[in-house]
Amino acid sequence: MRTLLVVPLVLAGCSAMTEPPDASVDSGTSMDAGLVVDSGSEDAGTDAGGLDAGHPEDAGTPDAGTPDAGVDVPRQLVFTGGGNLIRVFAFEEDGGLRALGQVNAGSGASFLAADLPRGRLYAVNEGSAQIAAFAFDARDAGLTLLNRVSSGGGGPAHVSVDRSGRFVFAANYGGGSVSVLPVTDAGLAAPTQTIGALGQAHQIFSDAANRFVYAPCKQADFVAQFAFDGGVLTPLSPPALDTDDNAGPRHLALHPTLPRAYLINELSSTVQTLAIDAQGRLTSLQTLSSLPSNFAGSNTGAELVVHPNGRFVFASNRGHQSIVRFSVNATSGELTLLGHTPTEGNHPRHFSLDATGRWLLVGNQQSDNVVLFALDDATGALTSRGVVATVNDVAFAGFVTAP
């Protein structure tokens, strides 16, 4: 295992909720709620990994502009990211998507993180190695760019918000590092901590208690594990859970009630069940293939989600073009294969569940389509409702509940 390199960056005047050192870039950019969703070609982002919503204290909501007349903003929204655009949709009761608008998000907006109670949305900019901060207006679902700051490394693939809403985490795939960025009134401050020697870090997020943070690292073949306190990451002992060689750990998700986590390995097309001890340390319990036993083609694993009721785990296969479905043992947390559902498109890079656990949305990146499935929360079965949007180079398709 390689040693984790911890680099604290002390920045004068960069405490949370203060003016960041990096001025806003194109801070007047706002969302046009009248734009058509299918909007021609955009620059494709590089390969990366729903929306991570924190539950912050109320500190005011940034003003994102005057609402357009007649805009009906429902409780359930869908955000998509791909190329340089973020698109916002209303999710209708009948399962349809209604376009609300879109905004230029920067170079390679392949992953998003929402903190709508505080009126914020964050996006990676892979091409410029930045994180963009947007104000979200709940009156019309409008987005206004606040600022962009360095992600602390090259090619950021993932962004998330800690549970307090005071810090944003970035996983820098190209730079092999993770960073902590304080949230400010003006958007984001530059990173106050960067940890390196994390080959192709692909994701970073905090647990529900905001005590521990995990970062799967594809090239390094481990999941880095940290204690988190006061905006500072401290490696645990051991500092990482090793996977099999060339497994390529990509994304991790936590069980809602059991001390278990589930990991999708991109290169080996496997899903691991992990135990979490009281100190936040991970150990491996089980490894299953994400593919049918008779599949002989090429494949890479992409996204993994745990159902809100804790009874099912879903993961996506790029190559087999499917969502694999597992049931979860209520006592051990181990998985049993249920089956595979075709995604009705090519390269299902990202998918998400809505807050009710009754809908699953898949973004098929190479076929430029977003497909909706009804989900039976008693059996885990998926029933296609067909293509609900055409989005060029869709790398992210996430449900989020509006405040």
Please tell me about this protein's structure.
This protein is an all-beta fold. The protein has a single domain (5-401), classed as Methylamine Dehydrogenase, Chain H. The protein has no helices and 30 strands. The protein has strands at 5-8, 76-82, 85-91, 97-104, 112-115, 120-125, 130-137, 142-150, 156-161, 167-172, 177-184, 187-188, 193-196, 205-206, 212-217, 222-229, 232-242, 249-254, 260-265, 270-276, 282-289, 300-306, 312-318, 322-328, 335-342, 348-353, 359-364, 369-375, 382-390, 396-401. The strands form seven sheets. Strands 1, 9, 10, 11, 12 and 13 form a six-stranded antiparallel β-sheet that branches. Strand 19 and strand 20 (270-276) form a beta hairpin. The N and C termini lie far apart (43 Å). The relative contact order is 0.15. InterPro entries: Cycloisomerase_2, Haem_d1_sf, Lactonase_7-beta_prop, WD40/YVTN_repeat-like_dom_sf. It holds the Pfam family Lactonase. One of its GO terms (cellular component) is cytosol. Belongs to the cycloisomerase 2 family. Residues 18-69 are annotated as: Disordered.
